[in-house]
Amino acid sequence: IITIKMETDIRKIRDKIGQDAITYGWVHRIRRQGKKMIFLILRDGSGFVQVGVFGDLAKRYSEVQSLSMETYIRVVGLVKEDSRAPYAGVEIEARELDVLGASNTDFETSVQAEAGNQVAFDLRHLFIRGENTSAIFKIRAFILKTLRRYYDGIGYFEVTPPSIVNNSCEGGSTLFKLNYFGEDAYLTQSSQLYLESAVPALGKVFCIHPSFRAEKSKTKRHLAEYTHIEMEAHNMSLEKLIDHLRKLFHYVFKAIDTDEEISKLVKKLNPLYKGLYYDDFMVLPYYKAVELCGELGILFQEDDSEPRPYMYGDDLTDKVERRICEHLDKPVF
User: Fold this and answer.
1) What region does 18 belong to: left with phi over 0, alpha with psi -120 to 50, or beta?
2) Which residues on neighbouring strands pair with residue 158, listed in sequence order?
3) How is residue 10 annotated by DSSP?
4) What percent of the chain has a predicted confidence (pLDDT) above 90?
5) Which of 79, 103, 178, 191 lies in disulfide reach of 16, CB 3.0 to 4.6 Å?
6) 123 exposure class (CB count in 10 Å sphere: 0-12, 13-18, 19+)
């Protein structure tokens, strides 16, 4: 009879308090205190936990430098509650420790918190292992799952449109051009056209799909590659669209706030976070927005012309929209 002992994901390690557990993961941080005491922060993607390595076991790994940051290890030990331990509030007291994949010791010098942007981009595969970036990935995955659940619940079908297209939907200046078997083709700027063509077949459709713009990603409003969520439906008026978006935001925001793990990650990234808006959306007619610009002293300026008060027909820039939202202190349609 072969008995297979299953490992425990770190995010479930608290369920093992007072018991032995087998855990696999990467050494996220390491702190040596003499030759007979080592404290590790272990990471498996699901979370972080402190591992205490003591006595002869610690001495072995103090003398052999194979235990360094990003080493992949197997740990067997007793899970003990300890309020001083970071992250899970528990510590694994190691009884067995095996190095399964030794790492390059350059990690500790190349991956520094104060590294510049270029270093972070060049070593992106390493920097995403950090606590903040991995938290962003987890929040993103949760939002994608929530969006799909929402649209599935209201009868929309997900379609997967192509990324390579032969026309432009938003002007040619930001198209990524490529040779497609001897013909000109482009990376898509939007999946709108394909969704519209699917409406007569499926009625209500959506996609979560990458879009590409040939402009340098130097601000949050200029992204060479990003993920669109787009929807199309028949018999859709502006009022119905606003109601649709209001319900969508409500659903996603509430899901974030009521999920303990995800809301904790959001608060860690933004300590000022106090919850998202559920229902407090305002519908502001365009003409009232123009009047509000006058009340707030916001001026319209086009190219090198002299600034003047806003008039009906002028475009509201994103800067103006932000000023209006800040003044009204709520999200505005």
Assistant:
1) left
2) 206
3) G
4) 66
5) 79
6) middle
